[in-house]
Structures are given as C-alpha cells and as structure tokens.
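Hi V.,

You were right to ask for the full record rather than a summary. Here it is.
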Amino acid sequence: MIHATAVLGKGVKLGENVVIEEDVRIGDGCFIGHNVVIHADTEIGNGVRIGDNTVIGRLPMRAKMSAVTEEGRLTHTVIGDNALIGSQVVIYRGCSIGSQVLVADLASVRENVEIGDLTIIGRGVAIENRVKIGRKCKVETNAYICALSVVEDFCFIAPMVTFTNDNFLGRTEERFRYHRGPWLKLGARIGANATLLPGITVGEDALVAAGSVVTRDVPPGKVVMGVPARIVRDVPEGQLIENQVFFKK
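Predicted structure:
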C-alpha cells in the first residue's frame, strides 16, 4: 500500500507487502525490502537500503509508569543518504539518522535520537529515547544505550555494554532531579560487558576495560578497570585518536 501523497524518487525498488503512509518522501535509488512499514512524514534520502520486516517512523507507546517517554508531537524521522538499515529494525518517530549510517538487524532506535554520519549501530543494539550519538562511532552487538545519554564522535562501545540513568532504581520522586545517562567524550572506548552508572563522564580518549563497573568520572586519556573501575595507566600513545588514520581523514 502506497499512500497517494507519498513521493518516491527515480529507481526505487519495493518488495512485497510494503506500506508507505502519507507524506513520506523517498529519494532516488532506494531499495525497500519485503513487509517494510514507513510511517507518515518520514524522509528518506538517496541510495538508502532497508531490510525486510523493518518499521520506520513509528510512534512510541507511553505506559502509565514510563519515566522518560514524553507525550506530544514529535518531528518526522529523517534517514540520510546511503544509509543501510537492516532487517527487523524499529526506528521511532523523531529520529535523525545521518548519511552512510549502518543500523544492523534487530536494532531498536527510540524517539528523539540523533545518530551522526558514518556511525555503525550493531546487531540487536537498543538505543533509548533522547540520545545523541556522534559521527564515526561504533556501537557493537547487543549494547544498551539508555535514555538521556550522549556519545560524542569516534567513540567505540563493545558488545553487551550497559548504560544506566537512574541511581534510585525507579523509587522516589527525587530520582527525576538526577535522571541522566553517561556522557562519552571524543574518542572514548568502552570494553565488552562494562557497566556505566548514571551521569558518568568518560573523558576524551579514555578507555574502560572489559567487565568494569564505572562509578565515577574517568579522566581523559586514562585506562580504568575493575569493580569499581580504577585508573591503572595512561592510554598508549599509539592508540590515541589523534594518531589514527581514520581520524585525520
């Protein structure tokens, strides 16, 4: 089903059972897989590929006990040029996905999320609402990025990393005063299975070792590890972001 107000560019290829709602705009040369649903007002750039059974631009559902989901009008979802969106992905309304972004199979991207150009979102990653992720980041398989988090450019987040944003674990009204996710500064790296507590700042070029629990801010350029995580050494010079070929391009 294609709504009469939808605009499709040149050379767009559609699979079976595709639903395209009102005022959707799709650029030239896009490929839309089987059973894809593109909700109203969504804007898709040129050369975008969307895998089977994916949903783009859906409205969130607000449970009575939701702490962060907000009611009210959301802006339309925008998918940048040459983005690759996998199968069984759900991207909510109000998202901005940059050019050449990869969102792999089974990922979920909640409303009011911004993802910068050339970033990779791995298989099964969950990104909650009101999150900002910068350019050329990697968020690997099954990582969990909680609401109200910020990830700056060139950050690396390994598989199974967990961000948190509520030190009160859902109890007391006081928790809303402190509700905030972690903030990763330019080039920060987080190892597999690490957990970051609410409001933590990980400094530029810092590295959190696998399995660590980060309970306090991490200074720039330091390696931390353990439970709780403690500083063990400086990040080796050869690993600093300023010395990487991809950073200089």
